[in-house]
Amino acid sequence: xxxxxxxxxxxxxxxxxxxxxxxxxxxxxxxxxxxxxxxxxxxxxxxxxxxxxxxxxxxxxxxxxxxxxxxxxxxxxxxxxxxxxxxxxxxxxxxxxxxxxxxxxxxxxxxxxxxxxxxxxxxxxxxxxxxxxxxxxxxxxxxxxxxxxxxxxxxxxxxxxxxxxxxxxxxxxxxxxxxxxxxxxxxxxxxxxxxxxxxxxxxxxxxxxxxxxxxxxxxxxxxxxxxxxxxxxxxxxxxxxxxxxxxxxxxxxxxxxxxxxxxxxxxxxxxxxxxxxxxxxxxxxxxxxxxxxxxxxxxxxxxxxxxxxxxxxxxxxxxxxxxxxxxxxxxxxxxxxxxxxxxxxxxxxxxxxxxxxxxxxxxxxxxxxxxxxxxxxxxxxxxxxxxxxxxxxxxxxxxxxxxxxxxxxxxxxxxxxxxxxxxxxxxxxxxxxxxxxxxxxxxxxxxxxxxxxxxxxxxxxxxxxxxxxx
Length: 470
Prior knowledge:
The chain is built from 14 helices and 23 strands. By secondary structure, it is an alpha/beta fold. It folds into three domains: 6-95, NAD(P)-binding Rossmann-like Domain (Rossmann fold); 106-313, Mur-like, catalytic domain (UDP-N-acetylmuramoyl-L-alanine:D-glutamate ligase), CATH 3.40.1190; 323-469, Mur ligase, C-terminal domain (Protein-Tyrosine Phosphatase, Chain A), CATH 3.90.190.
């Protein structure tokens, strides 16, 4: 490894890959990369770091014979650059293998895993540690506004990493989080997802059981007690387990909870011991649960309650996680990553609590491997019931999913209408923007939900809004 100078990343514009590229650049390596497309926030982050991104996957992208190639999990065996890499016998690693070898060895990794809340939980952990002077390293699947980055080397012992159960590469089918050498872990939730690689919830649980088995006896697992899947697998841990949640059996609990326009206020309990009253700028029960896991982790590192509260107050949030893009003429546009039915329900509920009495538009793009398939067809309608107006876009790249397996926006809208909701399917982004332009009124909240750039809908809507507000 000490002979490596030039590293090339195939599919560099994914959040994890782009973050790793930034860390490698900061470590002094020559870094190049390639991808089929670029879009913010990662395109901006790579540009700011001076990393060359070569558009398209072509043999000539490896013309300068890098010493190491890091292959993203979206890259297939027949990729032209992979063919050259194998033909020339260039050393290669998957993204999680590279992260582990370059940055996790010799550290005390905190791995945040779970179907929901990983990015927020990991980001809160990293920022509170930083604010308390612990100088953590981190690599997280979102851009933290406090750092204006999704990654950081850090000189402290702790390294915070968002642990994904998705597979690692075409040559490495193990879940990513099995590479991360966890010393401590937070598991938020376990539900069925990633329908393109998992056949059932039971298969997902097997992956999480493998992950839990990696925790050493002197490690620590913070486990969300309210989630049945977490309760089932956490019992296999060899290390101490600290439960957090609303359940009376939880070690870390919240009580006397109230929500307002500034976020969440709550009383913190450790068992039956009242520790104090805290305030968080984040909204919703799901974010409060995330916060309880973070508090348990921070207290294990002997951070004081005042250090935790100070970090909470200064937390600026994450791009595309309940991110207020702009308020124009009394209309507030919010961008969010929600895509799983549970995440959609939780996000809508959080927005209703944060903005009581205001009309909420939920605008959703089925874009993930699971949301594009009909596996959640029956679950999605109920997830949207608290929204006042609902718009469902076309399935992203629908032609890549067989029709018999494909999610149907039309059927979902029919179901919502039968439940008394005002809902419609508007296929194209430009049609959605025009409809909103004609129907938004002062005080409305527009919640945009997609795990991708949603064809730039936020920017298009904000550009159109002055015409409706004057």
